[in-house]
Amino acid sequence: MSPETPSSNGTPRPARFVRPPPPALGADCALFLDIDGTLAEFARVPDAVHIDTEITDALRRLFDDLGGALALITGRAITSADRLFPNLKLPIAGQHGCERRDADGGIHLHSPVKTTQARLRNLLRGLATRHPQLLFEDKGASLALHYRETPQLAAHVHRTLRESLGADEGYELQPGKMLLEVRPEGRDKGTAISDFMAEPPFAGRLPVFVGDDLTDEHGFTAVERLDGWTVKVGPGPTAARFRLADPTAVKHWLQVPMVAEATYAMDPEDEG
Ligand SMILES: [Mg+2]
Question: How far is the CA of 107 from the centre of ligand 1 (A)?
Answer without folding.
Answer: 22
